[in-house]
Amino acid sequence: MKKTGELNLAVFCDFDGTITKPDIGDELFKVYGSFEPYHSQLKEGKLNIKNYWQKVCSELKPGTNAEIIKKFAEDAEVDSYFREFAVFCEDNNIPLSILSDGFDVYINPVMKKLELERISIYCNILKFCNGSPPVPVYPYASESCDCMCASCKRNSMLNNVDDDTVIVYVGDDYSDFCGAEHSDIVFAKKNLAAYCNENRIPHYPYSTFFDILRIMKDILKKKKYKIRHQAKIKRKQAFEAE
Ligand SMILES: [Zn+2]
């Protein structure tokens, strides 16, 4: 339990391209299915994300089962400092959750391999039934957010914080936009960093969890943190819209 006056931080972290170096969700369908033309259609706005997942999942090569996907995921390179970061959070009583618009079937094996299976994961589910292609299920879909994700990171985040929580967000891509907008401390690289720059969202650029670990240690030491006013307004609006 937190004592009065202690920081009330919570960290939310993207998976593909953030914890793992490759985007497993993209690579999986490149190797075992039909990534294109669907991915281009998604980027051009001709397919929405749910239809995109529907298409690529239904066109996985016959016989692509959970076991094959597990092995594929276990081979993916992980940020060398992620495990140390996760242990740092645990040692400092900072809840760490993973928010992903990808699937349990490849995220869980990576977390298990890292011996971090106790971390909460909010993502889509891929259901396998004998003989037919797997079916995507979206337990965290949101009607009210315009984030274009099948698993809305904003909502998963806001459902798991208190009013006084200082929200830390780590991400790299499109699916992180709504999460970052509603967070107080943002770590961003690639497309997310560009988005933060365009939208004047203050953020720490990073290249690996080594950088994040260093800055988080500094934040804890100096207690140098504050609720971001714009994010707080956005959180209030989100609660009202739900
Ligand atoms: Zn959203």
Describe this structure in words.
With 242 residues, this protein is α/β, with parallel strands linked by helices. It has a single domain, classed as HAD superfamily/HAD-like (Rossmann fold). Helix content is 42%, strand content 17%. It contains eleven helices and seven strands. It has helices spanning 24-32, 38-43, 49-58, 66-74, 82-91, 104-113, 153-158, 177-181, 190-198, 209-222, 229-241, and strands spanning 9-13, 96-103, 120-129, 132-137, 166-171, 185-188, 204-205. Strands 4-3-2-1-5-6-7 form a seven-stranded mixed sheet. The protein is globular, with a radius of gyration of 18 Å. The protein starts with 8 loop residues before the first strand and ends with a helix. Bound molecules: zinc ion. The site of zinc ion has 8 residues, from α7.
In short:
By secondary structure, this protein is α/β, with parallel strands linked by helices. It has a single domain, classed as Rossmann fold (3-Layer(aba) Sandwich), CATH 3.40.50.1000. The protein has helices spanning about 25-30, 40-45, 50-60, 65-75, 80-90, 105-115, 155-160, 175-180, 190-200, 210-220, 230-240; strands spanning about 10-15, 95-105, 120-130, 130-135, 165-170, 185-190, 205.
